[in-house]
Amino acid sequence: MVWLVQAALSLPTVLIGLLLYLMLSRQGPMGGLHWLFTQPGIVAGQCLIALPVLLAFTLAAVQA
Known about the structure:
Low-confidence stretches: none
Number of helices: 3
Number of strands: 0
Shape: elongated
Largest sheet: none
């Protein structure tokens, strides 16, 4: 589990944005939500970008 959090830290934000775009596009698996270029979609993207950092800080605090 720790390696997964550390691997997520090395993902570029552009890659995360591209994957989210593909997921939210009309042909994507979450396209029915119509979140592409909307506030809920932007919030979901920011959460996906911030989640690995928050998990790494939490993991370091718990281990200390």
